Amino acid sequence: xxxxxxxxxxxxxxxxxxxxxxxxxxxxxxxxxxxxxxxxxxxxxxxxxxxxxxxxxxxxxxxxxxxxxxxxxxxxxxxxxxxxxxxxxxxxxxxxxxxxxxxxxxxxxxxxxxxxxxxxxxxxxxxxxxxxxxxxxxxxxxxxxxxxxxxxxxxxxxxxxxxxxxxxxxxxxxxxxxxxxxxxxxxxxxxxxxxxxxxxxxxxxxxxxxxxxxxxxxxxxxxxxxxxxxxxxxxxxxxxxxxxxxxxxxxxxxxxxxxxxxxxxxxxxxxxxxxxxxxxxxxxxxxxxxxxxxxxxxxxxxxxxxxxxxxxxxxxxxxxxxxxxxxxxxxxxxxxxxxxxxxxxxxxxxxxxxxxxxxxxxxxxxxxxxxxxxxxxxxxxxxxxxxxxxxxxxxxxxxxxxxxxxxxxxxxxxxxxxxxxxxxxxxxx
Length: 429
Known about the structure:
Layout: H1 18-22, H2 30-45, H3 48-54, H4 59-68, H5 86-99, H6 101-114, H7 116-120, H8 123-136, E1 140-143, E2 151-156, E3 159-166, E4 177-184, E5 190-196, E6 202-204, E7 221-229, E8 236-237, E9 242-243, H9 245-248, H10 256-285, H11 304-338, H12 347-374, H13 391-400, H14 406-419
Parallel strand pairs: 1-4, 2-4
Antiparallel strand pairs: 2-3, 3-7, 4-5, 6-7, 8-9
Helix pairs in contact: 2-4, 2-5, 5-6, 5-10, 5-11, 6-10, 10-11, 10-12, 10-13, 11-12, 12-13, 12-14
């Protein structure tokens, strides 16, 4: 794993040593994997508020994910992976996010970047990438921020060279491999490649000091003359140095965007579910009934407005979960049916599934913000204490739901509803 500089405070992996033996065997079923994710969430949830306030680089938490096997959840069994579908991956992200939104987000991004070759790689690159990541139990970060097209690529013989910077990256500081993305000089063609994180040409700014998702190491990074063999340019022909039409010029290549958008929605949902669970325990144990209402109750759990709010939050979260699971199944179906036959996926079908994903994004953004802010109304003034840590749930959801404006998802869905239009493939649809 990349070493966090001594000048940057980091959590100590030794605190999770016992779990390496406890989780030595990988789960072998959907239920087993989700049970493992819940165990990880329970471990993380025990001190999540304190770790959030300490704001240390999450070196130990990445080691915990490695011990759990969750980094291998989607990988082929022949290399030691769990070979689970994305539908299970999304549910596992959600479970981990209930305990710690930052680590749920890091797991989600890892699962996306570690399977990027499935979408934009050649068959040979898919196999080579899986073997490398799964057999080494690598954690993968990503310096991919498409709004800032500030990584330039030049071709030098049998290599390509990345230069530039990214204002945001995710998890790179604590990663083993980093996905780089840039534009090839003299073209408008983008190239993705996985590189070793621990090299002089990758220099992290260590400047992630935002209000939420504080343990995601999502700050800036400078890329200085990082060299990559042409054979590692995902989806490109290394001989002709051109993009493969059968890989990058078909609708299947556009699945990368709905796949990661659904990652986002699932950790929003998990964070909101975690907030409701955390608040519920606090209300039962600590919240006092209001004694000046004229219809006084002996305990907070008898208060009508408290019961009504919790019931309403629960109903909306349950509905959001059902929608998220349906979208996960729809996307899983595209991978199942078209990974071996990419040309068989039409743009229309891809777009219709993207609208399932957009629907989840809208709903989980709305309900996530509403629940994580609303739980304060049913826990009381003392729940605002930093010692309680209830604020982290809202801060986490508020931070990432600004990733791309949800208003555009609403507009996109409006055009689909009124005009039958599916979205064009972009960096955000």
